[in-house]
# Entry
Amino acid sequence: MSKGEFGLIQRFFSQQQAQPSSIIQGIGDDCAVLHTQQLSDLVISTDTSIAGKHFPHDADPVLIGKRCLEVAVSDLAAMGATPLYFTLNISLPPNPANWLVAFSKGLFASANRFPMTLIGGDTTKIDSLSQCQMSVTVFGSLQGRTGLYRRGANPNDFIYVSGTLGDGALGLAAYQKPENFTATDRDYLLDAYLSPKAQIQLGQALVGKATSCIDISDGLLSDLGHILNASSVGAEIHTDKVPLSTALKRNMNQDDAIHLALTGGDDYQLCFTSPLSKAALGIDNIYLIGNITQSKGLSFTPNNYVPPKTTGFDHFL
Amino acid sequence: MSKGEFGLIQRFFSQQQAQPSSIIQGIGDDCAVLHTQQLSDLVISTDTSIAGKHFPHDADPVLIGKRCLEVAVSDLAAMGATPLYFTLNISLPPNPANWLVAFSKGLFASANRFPMTLIGGDTTKIDSLSQCQMSVTVFGSLQGRTGLYRRGANPNDFIYVSGTLGDGALGLAAYQKPENFTATDRDYLLDAYLSPKAQIQLGQALVGKATSCIDISDGLLSDLGHILNASSVGAEIHTDKVPLSTALKRNMNQDDAIHLALTGGDDYQLCFTSPLSKAALGIDNIYLIGNITQSKGLSFTPNNYVPPKTTGFDHFL
# Structure
């Protein structure tokens, strides 16, 4: 990590006093050093959040701090891992102190709920908050569990999701045009968009029960598509079973609501497959939305939904 | 990591076929999974490079690819670690294919020289290359060695650096105003600025010999200052012993040259302390530039250099 930001690190990012014994060196030197023999494995993922793309630059910095960690940890959840450590790369405008007080408050509120420890990072200078980017790299452990990969879905497996879909995408609309929503719906949708929660407990509960798992960051069809590709299978989606929130249903007609639920990003629910029924899984608050098919590709029942040619953000090039 | 960039990952970042046996899952799932018991420890550092701040956005993408990895690995060198893996977060403008062909060529040329394996990352969209940021997180191991920390310098230790200083900073000037330099000097200085090399072999050779070590990214006085603070000591610098390149001496008067060598960034040489003489160290191409003092603070001999109040980039706030 670069060292010029030493005062900044000391002031805002050294507030976690209790350190796990596996940390030989935390923040404050050229590198962090971990004693990994007691871990047996390390699960790593990294996520970048960009102002104006992934969050509004003028959002409450407490929420930005929470969100940038939660969306990174969401990948650990999708693997069934236990969160342990993280690093933070953040670019900041001049005089960031007030903003950082709030940002770091949110960041560590989220970190402490897992709990996980900040072990390093890098701060760089930018001209204005609208250019702010943060990359969070998260480290966890399976602690002897088998990980939840994308490649294990089998024909006839059921497909489940962990909560209502489309709320994150509609939440962005509620942030941009709050006057279009009632206060109740706005509060609910903004919370879904700005305050996603990594489903760590669910991910761990699925180990040994789910055959594949992914978190829904780019939209259900896009992310489920990665499971289907990795597993060389297809899927039948029951569009009438896709869970929709009351707020979503109140603000969109049924076709648009289903479309948003299938393709909108930023939900950070888990999507997983399992041969087990909902009763056999014994997990609350999950929704059966379809099943895996031997024939590749996606089909929809009732047969009145036509998916867009491009789904989610799958077509960078 | 987010998953929308799947095609991009497949096309440009999956070119390393041989994977160490410690990698249970590399790129292509929600997380990477490492089998760490055979490692005993993991050394981690992360570094962000921003277009227009750390590299010119219109520089050769082959060099940008090499540079973003080398400057991150430089922290592993300063710890005496062996590089193993890395992740890459990169933000890219529309239609990045041609740029990425060259960038990934440079990135993997650097990765393969260590060698180290890409295990994950995240790509995000920006509007233009001038907004490009990349965060590289590097993973290494001490393999049973004791790490080189900042906190071990003792009074009367010698202070060494691993190469000429100031060339990186003057290289930036040569990039901005090439007409001010001869072709020979320009080539040398641009190479110093755009193509730093992480001093991995030196770092490992210093284990057991150096009492502290840091890489010089923000300028000697700033980075040495972290050793002095962490070790609760001071230093006497022999300004006439600070190594200067012929190119630097040809383009600056002596006072300015020494000032740039002491405060310029981007050199990525190592600075280390040791009670051993150069002969006892038995390492070539290192330069004795001063000694650690019991009294804190910096002093300079010959006594004609006045350090600036702010050194390097140490004053973010």
About this structure: The longest strand of chain A covers residues 82-92. Chain A touches chain B through 79 residues (CB under 8 Å).
